Automatic annotation (TrEMBL):
PANTHER family: MANNOSYLTRANSFERASE YKCB-RELATED, UNDECAPRENYL PHOSPHATE-ALPHA-4-AMINO-4-DEOXY-L-ARABINOSE ARABINOSYL TRANSFERASE. Residues 491-513, 526-545 have a biased composition (Gly residues). This is Glycosyl transferase. GO terms for cellular component: plasma membrane. One of its GO terms (molecular function) is pentosyltransferase activity. Residues 485-545 are annotated as: Disordered. Residues 559-649 form the Putative mannosyltransferase YkcA/B-like C-terminal domain. The lineage of its organism: Bacteria, Bacillati, Actinomycetota, Actinomycetes, Propionibacteriales. Keywords: Cell membrane, Glycosyltransferase, Membrane, Transferase, Transmembrane, Transmembrane helix. The keyword Repeat does not apply. The chain crosses the membrane at residues 23-40, 99-118, 124-146, 153-170, 182-212, 224-245, 309-327, 339-357, 363-385, 397-415, 421-441, 453-472.
Amino acid sequence: MATLTESRPRVVARPLTLSRDKVLYGGLLVLTAIAYLWGLSKNGYANEYYAAAVQAGSTSWKAWFFGAFDSSSFITVDKTPGSLWVMGLSGRIFGFNSWSMLVPQALMGVASVGFVYVSVRRWFSANAGLLAGGILALTPVAVLMFRFNNPDALLIMLLCAGAWAVTRAIDSEKHAARWMMLAGALVGFGFLAKMMQAFLILPAFGLAYLVAGRSALGKRIMHSGLALVAMIVSAGWWIAIVELIPASARPWIGGSSTNSILELTLGYNGLGRLNGNETGSVGGGIGNPGWGGATGLQRLFGGEFASQIAWLLPAALLATVVLIVAAGKAPRTDRTRAFTILWGGWLVVTGLVFSFMKGIIHSYYMVALAPAIGAVIGAAMLVLWRRRTEWLPRATLAGGILLTAGWSFALLNATPTWNPWLRWVVLVTGAIAACALLMVPELGLNRATARRAGLATGALLIVTALAGPAAYSVSTIATAHAGAIPTAGPEGVGGRGGGGGGGGGFNRGGGQPAAGTQPGATTGTAPGGATTGAPTGGMRGGGGGFLGGGGTSGVSSELVALLQQGANGYTWAAAAVTSNAAAPLQIASEVPIMSIGGFNGTDPAPTLAEFQQLVAQGKVHYFVGGSGGGFGGGRGGTSSEISTWVAANFQAQTVGTSTVYDLTTSN
């Protein structure tokens, strides 16, 4: 009886040859760069919350270092500032604009594809590396996030680089400690990009080296300890500085209720994401399906998540099993087993956390699964393809492609009016590919004919696997995306409609649109029927309500002129409730705007007394409320107290479509 463990192919590193491998590798990177850079400026300032911080960092080193929202450094964004450092430096060098902000993100995507390729190629083959890198490059959510300004792009690049470093450590005996320390440092810097999400890969990285490293067990343990130290130093130096420096000398830590980076790390952006107890949060997943739906193994295969990442997720899980079986009872240092622990562990651990976490989760987080999906499929495909003359590997490969074709058909059927022919092409192509896999080896073809038949079958396999995600990726590239919760693919995918994500049912205070709502725009409706205050037309992007308004296009030229003329002599040209109301004002006017209450207006910064003192000291010139006479933003707390005090003590005036209060002239 044939088994996958029989005649296991020897897995060795293969030298690059200029005639083929380097050309194809270079072609993969060039095509990825073209895809990620094509029409990039259509995304404008993407997530204006982060764009405002990038703008601030491009003009103020203090704001750059702390990740402050404004150049006067009143409050930080609710993440560590690693990704802002990269985009802020680009803004300093090339001037702040959409291109200088987004091009580094796109290049991080190209680098991520490169790291996946070299990692897979090292232990398998160039073809396996090309397939793995191509899958990552064409995953819809990866295309989305590598053309956006969220922290995920830097995080994924660093984790892919870390996986490559662990691969080198496993291969090396003399320099294993150096490679493991590099891996630890890369993960640590990943923490400075998106905090504790970077640590989800630690079990896979650590176990892969401890199991398969060439050194003796004692040395492997020591090397792992050194990697842990490198990670702590890489992640902890900035945390230590922020904690030790006096609060009066730095901005308020956005997203925290006690002005503590440790609280933000362990609470809102840490354990709170797992158990749903998120102090400072916009609302967790418990009892609120608007933030990711019900927990469980089914989460990633339905709703808003499936179209972003799940195209090849069933195949990736099957591929992980194939690699486990292929390793069989091989020696401890077997590279197939090490690879499975490394990349399969990344996939399984991260996938389980995303499936069962009770706090805030958005579909674009799924980009963290894309490198592992590509890697395990690329490797398993090679293992099965080399043994396709044997019935069990051949049947497994045929079953996998039928599974992928059927699942792609189901995902494409979720948007039945969008290219309806495509789902049938994928289904039929998959059926033909499966039949060819099963039948060709039985036909007794000569070597040349069998080779041509194999190439044709391989092409059918690739078309079946990648046609769906590639089509969604092309749609993503062709469409402008903005807002706090972007979604890849055509209109109507997932569970949130064409806008790519609502705000979970929250609306702005008083039901008023945001300060930057576009004049004449209609308001959307979030799940549950709440008015979001976000325009329903224009760019794809989600958030609505306090998660984003109409963007800089909704800030009138009259208001821009007023803010710029009134900026001289003031620390903040104006104040507005929530960062997402302040962001378009700051970007459009290029002057610092105080974000009252931080991201969603609930941070206790400033208090009413502190704001009154700043006004008395002449540090804030204007207060900008919502359009049509409302204040916009905020959900109680100090932001509501400040709004009430401003309305009671200062005269309102309408500038463009916004309500503005001159804080230098009281009633």
